[in-house]
Amino acid sequence: MARSLWANGIRKRDILQNAYGYGLFTGAHGFEKGAQKIGAMVITISSGNTKRQLTIMKDFSTTVLVCTPSYSLYMAETAEFMGFDPLKDFNLKIGCFGAEAWSEEMRTSVEKRWGITAHEHYGLTEIIGPGVVSECECKKLHVNADHFFPEVINPDTGETLPHGEEGELVFTTLTKEAFPVLRFRTRDLAVLYEEKCECGRTLPIQSRIKGRSDDMMKVKGVIVFPSQIEAALIQVKDISDNYQIIKSKRGDITTLSVEVEPSVKRWKEGDIDALEKQAGEEIFSILNLHVPVKVVEPNSIPRSIGKAVRVVER
Fold first, then answer.
1. Any idea which of 85-94, 152-161, 170-179, 209-218 has the lowest mean pLDDT?
2. 223, 216 in Cβ contact below 8 A?
3. Is residue 150, in this structure, part of any structural domain at all?
4. The domain boundary residue, chosen from 153, 180, 210
5. Are residues 242 and 289 in the same domain?
6. pLDDT for res 106
7. How far apart are the C-alpha atoms of 306 and 72, rounded to whole Å?
8. At what angle do helices 226-233 and 272-287 cross, to 10 degrees?
9. Global pTM value
């Protein structure tokens, strides 16, 4: 983790606010110990109590925020509600985010809201937690392959695929003693590359997660991942970062609909039908599939202090 955080640009002078939940979840402890090894100050605040998080962040001049990407957006939303400007009233420079899937479009949104550089951390509790894969300053994901041996397989046949082909990630631990795993199937879909990175690191490069094989939904013959719908919704100017995908199944037929929140200003303007139509067109442009969109009242979709619940089955 010290290696991973150093690659993000974290140094001894930084103040890292650790907003992952402390408990049996490995994430908070991994980030804390890695940052301390670098010599950075760690605020072990844990998750929740968002207004207190922001007060501490302002008073301590936090430079690094560690949490899920969806929670960082909720923190920005709460900061604005409290009368703060996330771009001007805080000292944040770097965000270290993980524990849930997030699109490149969401990364852009987080960076724009906070004025920071957002880095991805990929790990699994079964493997060790955080520290398996993380980004360098060039925003390329490097596998710590001296500790975790990566492979990509065909999820249907188990066949090992060559570098450059998309498939399911499989990891074998090389140095873990108490709970080693051999060829652990992650269900996450990605690509491994052998190319050299501009940062100079020689560790293998992994693509961002394209989706999970068990998150994949087949609707009217079309393969759909939640991240594709997120990428479409972020293109719509007056829609907030809060949405839920409603999955319904009758017999063998799966149907999807989406509930989204508009900005408060847009909600007051009315003409919600036009906003629903625009969001539906953006989804169609990516999926070539008509998915009904319903705009609901601002702040009506439940917020999460950890992993956001994006898909709801009804």
1. 209-218
2. yes
3. yes
4. 210
5. yes
6. 87
7. 10
8. 130
9. 0.77
Whether residue 15 is found in the same domain as residue 84 = yes
Per-residue pLDDT tens digits for 229-275: 988 998 898 888 889 999 887 777 778 899 999 988 889 888 899 99
What is the domain extent for residue 175? 136-210
Indicate if 3 and 113 belong to the same structural domain: yes
pLDDT tens, position by position, 183-209: 999 999 999 998 889 999 999 999 998
Q: How many domains does the chain have?
A: 3
**231 and 187 fall within a common domain:** no
The whole-angstrom separation of Cα 47 and Cα 63 is 17
Considering the domain architecture, whether residues 115 and 151 belong to the same structural domain is answered as no
Q: What CATH number is attached to the domain comprising 33?
A: 3.40.50.12780
